[in-house]
Amino acid sequence: MEDKTNSLHTKKKKTRAKDPCPVCEKELYHNKHYSKRIGLFDINTESHDILGWSCPHCDSEFDKSDNIMYIYGQNYTQGKS
Ligand SMILES: [Zn+2]
Question: What's the CA-to-centroid distance between 75 and ligand 1, angstroms?
């Protein structure tokens, strides 16, 4: 018996994202100068310190160290309710 589905298995399912979102794994890489991350700034300070960034794909927010603050737009630390 010939296995005609064999050729389908040669393609490996691999996400080739250069800079994947830690939550949704969508590509955040735009080019070598910019990413698709949305910068979050502190509007209450004059210097507008950067607080972190947000993923344009899934609305998750992260701090400067890529720690998850909000996952899919919801408070990550209060996810138990
Ligand atoms: Zn995401």
Answer: 15
**pTM recorded for the entire structure:** 0.69
Residue (of 58, 55, 56, 61) closest to 76 by Cα position: 61
By the 8 A CB rule, do 77 and 70 touch?
no
- List pLDDT tens digits, range 3-60: 665 555 555 566 688 999 999 999 999 999 999 999 999 989 898 889 999 999 999 9
Radius of gyration of the chain (CA): 19
How close is the Cα of 79 to the center of ligand 1, in Å? 17
